[in-house]
Amino acid sequence: MAEVSERELTGLYDSLSRFQWWRRRWSRPSPGAGLELHKRLNAPDSSKGGPAAGTAALHGWLLQWVSWPARPKVLDIGCGFGATIFSWARQRSGEFVGLSLSGYQLARANEQARQLGLADRCDFRTQSYDQPIDGHYDVVVSVESLFHAPEISHTMTNLRRSMTAGSTLMLLEDMATDSQVRQRPEARQLLQAWSTQSLHTREDYHRALAGASLEVMEEIDLTAQVPHGDPEPLTRSSERIERWKRWTPSRAGRRILDAFAGGMALEQLYAADTMRYVLIVARPSGSLNP
Q: How far apart are CA 181 and CA 186, in angstroms?
């Protein structure tokens, strides 16, 4: 697949974020509500104790895997509208920084921070997680963001440089079961629709973590909670979206349809049991080589 530019990815984020924001406004939410841009999970198996169904419960569930310092610095890469940051900032002390390529997302996140009275503790910045990150952080979190990393090993090393010896890294990501998944037509559609160029496997993440001197402390597979439709209806819906794209004149409209087409392709991969939704908690295991 041809290299995807940061500009293309930013355009996708901005277009989809505008759509999601205006759809959210129809429900007249209170400040800080309805900001999640991640999966809406099914209820967990009671014996496994995953996050509760929906979207809002995930952030509180993630907190249990962090040893929270007295006043930590927290970095959310691919922060979206700030849902994770606001959930944590209302429960715990600390300073919070969010990174996103989307200026629209950051404008809305800063607006929400002011409405919630958290602007003095929450800072949102326009930046890629592959660029050098200012400062050092006690907690670094990514929820469904590293999917877009062109080279996961480079990204992991860059994140490691922003951490101290006692920091915690939390990754909750879609991971391919093996490298052969990349050859599936749904995978190619997903990468094209979501303006990215590589479908990372679970092994890719483990190699990148080890290469960045990060040791896995916890690994929890939440795949059973990921909802997906049946393959045939998903295929028909995907074909229908492709037809709509041909008749959609605006670029922003086509980007929104691309976002939905990518989501359906991802559902097809989950339906085929070729993707995993995995939380990895890691900590530095030694010095990072220069």
A: 9
Q: Is 41 helix (H, G, I), strand (E, B) or coil?
A: strand
DSSP 202: H
pLDDT band at 40 (very low <50, low <70, confident <90, very high): confident
Q: What residues contact 49, with CB distance under 8 A and at least 6 apart?
A: none
Strand ranges across the sheet with 73-77: 122-126, 95-100, 73-77, 137-143, 163-176, 275-284, 214-221
Q: What is the pLDDT of residue 48?
A: 65
User: What residue type is assigned to position 172 of the chain?
Assistant: L
- What pLDDT is attached to residue 159? 97
pLDDT computed for residue 290 by the predictor: 58
User: Under 8 Å CB-to-CB from 47, ≥6 apart: which residues?
Assistant: none
Cα torsion 117, 133, 20, 226 to 10°: value is: -110
pTM of the model: 0.90
Q: What burial class does residue 214 get, using C-beta atoms within 10 Å of its C-beta: 0-12 exposed, 13-18 middle, 19+ buried?
A: buried
Give residue 1's pLDDT band: very low, low, confident or very high (50, 70, 90).
Answer: very low
| Range list of β-strands (E), the chain | 73-77, 95-100, 122-126, 137-143, 163-176, 214-221, 275-284
Question: CB count, 10 Å around CB of 273?
Answer: 9
Q: State how far the Cα of 147 lies from the Cα of 3, in Å rounded to an integer.
A: 15
**Strand pairing class (214-221; 275-284):** antiparallel
Find the range with the poorest average confidence among 10-14, 29-33, 79-83, 98-102. Answer: 29-33
